[in-house]
Amino acid sequence: MACRFGMVLYVISQFLAFLFVLVATPIDMFRPKGTSRFGNTDCLTLWGEKKHCYSTVYDQKSSTIWANCPQRGLQFLVAAVLAVISIFVYGLAFILGFIMLFCCFCLRWVCLTLNIVGFGTLSVVWALMVVVYYTDDGTPCPRLSQKYHFGAGFALFLSTWVRDIFSILYLLVTFNATDPHRNKTPKDAKQQ
């Protein structure tokens, strides 16, 4: 029963990871200093700049904003691509975790692999945003920390990344603790 309860928690955790990454990808990575962190103000996302952050319309695309900063433009592009990959990784981990809850406990290996891949992709996404925030690339590309603070999307990516550490540890612990065929002798197998 403890294993089943643990698996339910794992599936809920994977659903939250999927939801957080899905929500974080299109919303703000950075908000201008002196404005509300949650208001409908200017913001920078992985895809560009919005004058009204709750809008679906981008006033400037990332390629336009970072036209004079090719390194920074590449960092935003890589972060955006890896964020989209993370959506699929965590979505698949949730679906397979749900299947694993009712049958096919052998899927834990696949779920572990997906969690490790998701951990890696999110590591790069939030690390690139931290680099952009603190790195001064010259006059046309000042560090974003001068004008911006981190936004809600960044916080969701980082919280999902931290939560993923616990999911990976849980799956590693359950490998040895719940395998019904582990530690059986050939004599035990013949009796069944």
Structure characterization notes:
This protein has 192 residues and is mainly α. The protein has a single domain (2-177), classed as Butyryl-CoA Dehydrogenase, subunit A, domain 3 (Up-down Bundle), CATH 1.20.140. Helices cover 62% and strands 7% of the residues. It has six helices and five strands. It has helices at 2-24, 62-65, 70-102, 108-134, 152-177, 186-191; strands at 30-32, 43-44, 48-50, 60-61, 148-150. The strands form two sheets. The chain has a three-stranded antiparallel beta sheet. It has a two-stranded antiparallel ribbon with strand order 1-5. The protein is elongated, with a radius of gyration of 21 Å. The chain starts with a helix and ends with a helix. Keywords: Membrane, Transmembrane, Transmembrane helix. It holds the Pfam family Amastin. The chain crosses the membrane at residues 7-27, 76-102, 109-134, 154-175. InterPro entries: Amastin.
Q: Please identify the top-level CATH class.
A: Mainly Alpha
Report the span from N to C terminus: 22 Å
CATH topology: Butyryl-CoA Dehydrogenase, subunit A, domain 3
Note the run of SSEs as H and E.
Answer: HEEEEHHHEHH
Roughly how much helix do the residues carry, as a percent range? 55-70%
Give the integer mean of the pLDDT values.
84
Identify the CATH architecture: Up-down Bundle
Structural class: mainly alpha
The number of helical runs is 6
Instruction: Note poorly predicted spans.
Output: none
Largest sheet entry: 3 strands, antiparallel
Which percent range describes the beta-strand content?
5-15%
Total discrete domains:
1
- The Cα radius of gyration reads 21 Å
General form:
elongated
Strand order of the largest sheet: 2-3-4
